[in-house]
Amino acid sequence: MTARVPAAQPRIHIELTDQAIDLPRLRVWLRDVDTGAHAWFEGVTRRMTGDRQTVQLAYEAFAPMATKQLRQLAQQAAMEFELRAIAIVHRLGVVPVGEASIVIGCCSAHRVGALAALPWLMDRIKADVAIWKQEHFADGVHQWVHPT
Amino acid sequence: MPREVLLFAAAAELAAARTIAVDLPPAATADDVLAAIGQQVPALAELLPACRLAVDQTFVGPSFSVPAGAELALIPPVSGG
User: Fold this and answer.
1) Is B81 an 8 Å CB contact of chain A?
2) Is there a contact between A133 and B54 if contact means CB atoms under 8 Å apart?
3) In terms of CB atoms within 10 Å, which of A93, B31, B41, B48 comes out highest?
4) Contacts of B59 in chain A (CB under 8 A)
5) Within an 8 Å CB–CB cutoff, is residue B78 touching chain A?
6) Hey, is the C-beta of B55 within 8 angstroms of any chain A C-beta?
7) What is the three-class DSSP state of A116?
């Protein structure tokens, strides 16, 4: 009879930070020799939207609610996509052009789960998590982004 | 007795405050809270239809009965990521 190793509880790391997101540290955290797929998403402040230039984004959160929501989403994603570990880090405050506002990393035994988890998570984060972005344009205008 | 409501982002900017106090009817629902905000803080009236109410950091529906002592937060459209 083959010995079966019981499925481990997925590891989850949720973080809101006002510092630049430390990707190398997250890569170390995600390491798991029993997974064959490590997938990452990095959301970055874009310079141009159409012909309008962005100088920076500034993020604000209702931190206790956002943390709770991100943890719940990570737990759901881990079940849905058979992830063994998942890290979600969102930066708050000013995020200059070219720097990451959000990083999601996850791993699963095979590629399908880890790859599918990323858009699933981003769609839900953008729809429901209590975080707001204010866009600062080169012409001096700044406005809260209200997706429709 | 006035109840405190937390404000964020565009809502905080419009009201020029991080919290507001609103008078609620007894056994108020989430809808009652939003209506009271609209009446008592006119600066927020235009944004309100796009906002959701969170009670103890969880979104609630319009008929949710707001418990005494619960934390109330007005959540404008989110835009994280």
Assistant:
1) yes
2) no
3) B41
4) 128
5) yes
6) no
7) helix
Report the distance separating Cα A54 and Cα A49, nearest Å: 7
Q: How far is CA A109 from the centre of its chain?
A: 20
**Residue A105 one-letter amino acid:** G
Chain CA centroid to CA A28, Å? 16
Residue labelled with tokens 């990452």: A40
Boundaries of every domain in chain A: 11-144
ipTM of the complex as predicted: 0.97
Do the Cβ atoms of B80 and A66 come closer than 8 Å?
yes
Return residues 22-61 of A near B (CB < 8 Å): 43, 59-61
Q: Which CATH class is domain A11-144?
A: alpha beta
pLDDT, tens only, B32-77: 999 999 999 999 999 999 999 999 999 999 999 999 999 999 999 9
**CA torsion, ordered A29, A124, A73, B7, to nearest 10 deg:** 100
A144 inside 8 A of chain B by CB: yes
Helix extents (H) in A47-110: 63-81
Closest CA to A88 of A74, A76, A104: A104
Query: In this complex, is the C-beta atom of A113 within 8 Å of any C-beta atom belonging to chain B?
Result: no
CA distances (Å), origin A148, targets A126, B23, B64, B76: 11, 31, 25, 12
Predicted local confidence at residue A141, as pLDDT: 94
Give the integer Cα–Cα distance in Å for A43 and A120.
Answer: 14
